[in-house]
Amino acid sequence: MGARACRPLGDGTRTAGARPWDLLREAALELLSPTRCACCERPGTLLCADCLAQVDWIDPAQACLRCGAPFGAVTCTECRGAPSALAWCLACASYEEPVPQLVRAYKDGGERRLDAVIAALLARGYVRAWREAGARLAGCAPNALAFVPATGAAYRRRGFDHMEAVARLLAPQAGLPLLDALAKHGRSDQREAGREGRLAQARGAYEVVADVRGRHLLLVDDVITTGATLNAAAAALRAAGAAQVAGLALARVW
Which of 239, 198, 244, 247 is nearest to 221 (CA)? Predict the structure, then answer.
């Protein structure tokens, strides 16, 4: 499943089941503001083949299963074996260009159509993980998909919950039912916090709002920096009765 063999992701339209008026509106918008690659602005697609080929995919057979860092399968220098509420944790790619541009364009740049692109990348990483490192993940085979939600402040600022939108598209691709299981409290943006700040902010930030008893969950997020967010969310789900929680993110900062 090498990146270079894949077609560009996202042609800027959503035509499945669309009404004639919606198609006309899409055509008008395309004339006024043509679709461009979120990373290099090449016209015609939301993520062009050249930018897709630059994604630094993480080998799931070599990654740390506690924090998703590359090359941490034996001894991880990122988390150093710290305890985790996650049965396993993986990231699809390193947080290196063009991935940061993609994430910024989606979360803060107003390009909501990138939810489909990010969902497709996550699906690719998930399928690859089971194909190439399935024996390492066998302790937790998820039977439902959950997502790390945005805070109320982030929702009001952006006008949408970025991971909910991705999860709704990812769930059918992963063959898992979607469970809207978590609410997030607090107002802070963890992107501005250091490791200790992230850990402190994450404690007690999540409330379980669905019945997760006995579930084996795949919990998805966009970026892992310290792992504090996924761990805190997973701990809340486990405390509410989830049997196991595995983590999957688009990218890992390391």
Answer: 247
Q: Peptide bond before 172: cis, by omega within 30 degrees of 0?
A: no
Q: What is the pTM of this model?
A: 0.85
Q: Is 60 in contact with 68 (CB distance < 8 Å)?
A: no
Domains of the chain by residue range: 3-9+23-252
* Structure token pair of residue 107: 């979360």
pLDDT of residue 34: 86
Task: Classify each residue of 23-35 as buried b or exposed e, where b means 16 or more C-beta atoms within 10 Å of its C-beta.
Answer: eeebeeeeeeeeb
pLDDT tens, position by position, 164-222: 999 999 999 999 999 999 999 875 555 555 555 555 566 679 999 999 999 999 999 99
Sorted by sequence, the CB contacts under 8 Å of residue 83 that are 6+ apart come out as none
pLDDT of residue 23: 61
* Confidence bin at 139 (pLDDT 50/70/90): confident
